[in-house]
Design a protein that fits this description.
Chains A, B: Zinc phosphodiesterase, which displays some tRNA 3'-processing endonuclease activity. Probably involved in tRNA maturation, by removing a 3'-trailer from precursor tRNA. By secondary structure, chain A is α/β, with parallel strands linked by helices. Chain A is built from 11 helices and 16 strands. The structure holds zinc ion (2 copies).
């Protein structure tokens, strides 16, 4: 499980940051990549990564502002040029489907694969399958805007090989059955239970993605115990009033949510072009005073999210 | 009068070429810039030039394929962020307005200036004013596609200062009147005619822009005596059959039009991603065998179009 930022800017592209998009890479887990928001030129950013559009199977769209959706028609069209592409599902607010369908219709784009739209309406479990759940909650923006929480299901504990050796249980095909938690009869007639030879269940990872919103209680609910929280940070720590009036958040509000909800790592995203270079670093420092594990996200930044309890 | 290529690729963006767009800079003439086609990320390309979106007053769209229009909503939205922007006029095929209006409506983009759409329908003079005329003709593409011919009106000849000196006419305010071709009474009562002291009328410049099309007679008509012809060149010289079946042109077809119609300079544009580096140069060499003044257009290439008869 990996995250790569494709655009970390706000409102309009700058030379430093493209408009919003990030990729949740589930290649080891599902051989799939999920995108969150698709600002203009997201496909151009992807050209500079190792992401193949064929692998993008789901797109989640937080809200319909142009800097979050104007890259969608072009990305869908280009995905069509790749051979043997499967269906794609797009989760987004009302109106998104009309926008995409109109763009494809007017441009006479024949997409070579099925596109399914799922309209976000309120707080809901919007996807469950393949060992993952995705929840949304409505946030507080000028237009309907949704936050996302991706939960990986917990996995069975690891097989305790040392303990098996203590019991003189020889390596072989029965290891597979024990690992699956099954009961197995040994050659001497004894029956052993795989569950006795498994370490503790390993909790799945949690990623929370909060694009455009004012500070609002739904964010804490989506972020509870997240391994990684990606949170918009359109304004500086001392601009809470401005953030409120523009329906956005400050870096300190993001850090406060992270600190109060057992978050592992916070990434500040959706950085205004008013914060260039060192000024953007200032947002990071302000947030770190509240929550140390904060990083400023930059375009193409890349992180691996390790399983809980595994070596980092 | 200058041209800058913003995207010289075809179909989808590549690392080398963005999708279609070019700027006709009329800064000295009108303090305006006109765009021809607006593929996705045209505004991103513009970030890397000295073009200010405020100066873009007209956008001409050849046809509605995605690689020619998907940058339009984002560019219009970003133009809005610049202070004190005037109206913009968009010339394009039926359907373009619906696409743009839907994108702006769904994204709740409030554009700060009026947008006027003028629908292209057939062969027509679509603009006349400020010393310029723009003509369109329908080309032969899979969807309705239009070529453009921009004609600058001819300008009066230069004032022949040496001749005035021969006639002992002193420099002064009357020079302005003579330059305007007026009659002037001198102090000695003699009347002289400005027209006798003007050099030959200087013909205006002509720029022809031919995006996606098969070889078709309308191209010659649009290109007659053009100073600069920008012509799509999606296929190589020996792929005329392929070009025909995909409704595109070859580099040699472009060069033949240029040779047979008194064109000054030909730029090969709309280069397929199949032609990388040296292969693209091959298109140029093939065309140069037919018409020597051919150049392969690359993103950000820039050329000044001098007045006819002026020093180059
Ligand atoms: Zn935004
Ligand atoms: Zn094209």
């Amino acid at each position: 499980m990996e995250i790569q930022f494709l655009g970390t800017g706000a409102g309009q592209p700058s030379k430093q940051r493209n408009v919003a998009s990030l990729a949740l890479k589930l290649l080891d887990e599902l051989n799939e990549i999920w995108l969150f928001d698709v600002g203009e030129a997201t496909q151009h950013q992807i050209l500079r990564t190792n992401i193949r559009l064929r692998k993008v199977t789901k797109i989640f769209v937080s809200h319909n502002h142009g800097d979050h959706i104007f890259g969608l028609p072009g990305l869908l069209a280009t995905r069509s040029f790749q051979g043997d592409v499967g269906p794609i599902t797009i989760y987004g607010p009302a109106g998104l489907e009309q926008y995409v369908r109109t763009a494809l219709k007017v441009s006479k784009t024949k997409v070579s694969y099925p596109i399914k739209f799922i309209e976000l309406t309120g707080d809901a479990l919007i996807y469950k399958g393949q060992g993952f759940k995705v929840y949304t909650k409505k946030l507080d923006h000028r237009v309907a805007s949704y936050g996302f929480r991706v939960e990986e299901e917990s996995r069975p504990g690891e097989l305790l090989v040392d303990k098996l050796a203590q019991y003189h249980i020889p390596n072989g095909p029965i290891y597979g059955k024990l690992k699956a938690g099954e009961k197995v009869e040994l050659e001497d007639g004894n029956i052993i239970d795989g569950k006795d030879f498994l370490g503790p269940e390993r909790p799945g990872r949690i990623v929370s993605i909060i694009y455009d919103t004012r500070s609002t209680p739904a964010i804490a609910e989506l972020s509870k115990n997240a391994d990684v929280l990606v949170h918009e940070s359109t304004f500086g720590g001392n601009e809470a009033k401005l953030a409120y009036s523009y329906y956005h958040s400050t870096c300190v509000q993001a850090a406060t949510v992270a600190r109060d909800n057992g978050v592992g790592m916070l990434y500040l995203d959706h950085i205004s072009a008013r914060y260039l270079g060192n000024d953007a670093k200032k947002l990071e420092r302000q947030a770190q005073k509240v929550f140390e594990n904060t990083r400023l996200a930059n375009d193409f930044d890349y992180m691996v999210i390790p399983m809980k309890g595994s070596e980092k």
